[in-house]
Specification:
By secondary structure, the protein is an alpha/beta fold. It is built from 21 helices and 15 strands. An 8-stranded mixed beta sheet has the order 2-1-3-7-8-9-10-11, with helices on both faces. A 3-stranded antiparallel beta sheet has the order 4-5-6.
Amino acid sequence: MKLLIALLLSVPQAPAKILMLDFNNQIKETDACAAADPGNVFSVNEKTMGSEFVDATTVDEALARMDAAIKAERKSNPGAAGIDTIVLSGHHGAYGEFFGGTNEQNGITAKEFKETLAKYPDICKSLKNVVLMGCYPGTVDAGQSHWLKVCPNTRFTVGFPLQAPLGTDPRSAKLLSQVCAPEARAAAARVGDSKEALCQFYKNMPVLKQVGASVSNCWNIATDKYGKQQCFSFDELRARCSQFDPNGEMKTLYENYFEARTGYENPPLDGSDVEAEPGKTPLRKFYDQLHLWRHCHDSLAAEYGYDMPHPAQVIRLVKFTQVKDNINRLNRKELAEYDRRLEALGLGQFALGDLSRPGVNRAYIKRQIASAQAALSRMGATRAGQTDARAVLRMAAGVRVTLVDLLSKAQSEGKWVRCSHFSLVHAGARDPRDKSRCIVSYEKAAQLMGIK
């Protein structure tokens, strides 16, 4: 028996591996991680998988390949360690989703991620760390709601409480070159549920503070975004919920712009892109704070009647000019037809026209659509030639949920459709696949209303 144990201990321990899920095709990030542990980093992107997009099915395929390879390796080397870290890189949505690229199918939700991992118990057993290279997944709420404990032994996440650097930013590569190193991953796995060990890990890796990243385990978080103390238990942060927007000033500002009240007809510009750091507006700062303190949503509503708006709506208000201009370009055909159909019904005064022309602000759009809907509702099933008022009313509803209600998605025919892809908060979006699916043609509106 002693001889068998000695023989097993003498078998070389195969190093643990990293799976990098790259939804944005960020080669510099992949290269930085791979260089930190040569030969043990496996990247999943459109190129490596030979596909047009990376989704849950693609991730499933990659995990199946790795699972088979690890099992084969263990036949000759029982010490093969499996995957201890998974890196997700791309845009991070407020509903717990990583996505990127230009294809709408390119991405995976946290729910899909967990379900896919659960199919591979050996991989799930070995997985200790998750690194989240996107905006806003490193908060208390995002960790507890989506990314902590994606597998039974996964106790450690690296993420960004606020904006992440671009994938091409040298800071992203610097962070990955350190967190992908075997020593750092082993240290992360040893943190467990300890607050003290988590704090020490954060202090021992200065790059985390330099790039604005946080580290979390199941009970604690280390970051300077919640205060100078830099290390907090989740309970400590929940106890501070009453300090969030105590006089409701930030929410009032948001509501003024959302309702386009007098003096707040259009949100101020906030840079040419979502990553813009200089000159953050008060509305953008509110968006940041909503992410940081999202874990307070339920307690603030119950104790103070304070209803936090959803970050997905708020970012579309912050970037309203970009969203409006992109929708105006990508949905030009549907918007022009909407105007023509209003003209046919004698309601031309409520047409929207070219939304990029001077003077077209949020207040104007809101007023025009509300007036059109009221007039169309009064008309009922009135027809003017080939135009039925009910179908035009359905067209108006799609424009409203996209440009007034600022919904990211809505239900249609029993399924969710995108009203505005996240890419539309970036200036100059031109991919036709990112157009609003809620703004529809007259033909589609008539079909949805059952009108022949």
